[in-house]
Known about the structure:
Radius of gyration: 17 Å
Low-confidence stretches: 65-85, 200-204
Structural class: mainly alpha
Number of helices: 7
Number of strands: 2
Shape: globular
Strand content: under 5%
Largest sheet: 2 strands, antiparallel
Distance between the termini: 40 Å
Amino acid sequence: MALGCSVVYVLLASRDRNACWLFAAVGSLLWAHQMVAVYNLISDALLQVFYFVMAGVGLYRWRRSTRSRPAVEALDSEVVGELAGQKPPILRMTLGEHLTVASSALLLGYGLANFVLIYRADAAMPYLDGITTAFSVVATFLLIARRLENWLYFVVIDLAYVFIYWRTEAYLYLLVMLLYIVVAVYGYLHWRRLAIHSGHEAAA
């Protein structure tokens, strides 16, 4: 059930469908249980709890209509797509924003790993688990904020999780990560096409 809900979530997200967040909520709770009870991946379990909360945020954000473009964007990015009266526009990130995201996620991941080790010294692969969790959190915010490059972050994150799940023998989850990589590539191409079709050219 956890795997099924997660697969449906990412497929619907790549298609820009609001229903993706409902499957995300159910799948994340089931996934969190497995990460603690079976695989001892504590940071990953915490990530799934975060996903459950953010599923509600994502659904609210995506359903909110935008009749006019805001004067100041949350991130200083160029608009590459806007469907008036429907979802918020798809935005692109600047180089500075990428550097901020990467450095912040690395620091957060290192701190999370050390926090987990205080309470669970037997945690599996704590530093890699912590860093991938931190990047997943950041990429989720980018997805909710409809940043085009969120899909590129997820490609790299999912590749790291393939290694983690292989080392911890979580082979079914490894297969899902491989599927996620394919869907993330599709999601990027699909979102970029939506942006271009809406009348805005994407910045290089």
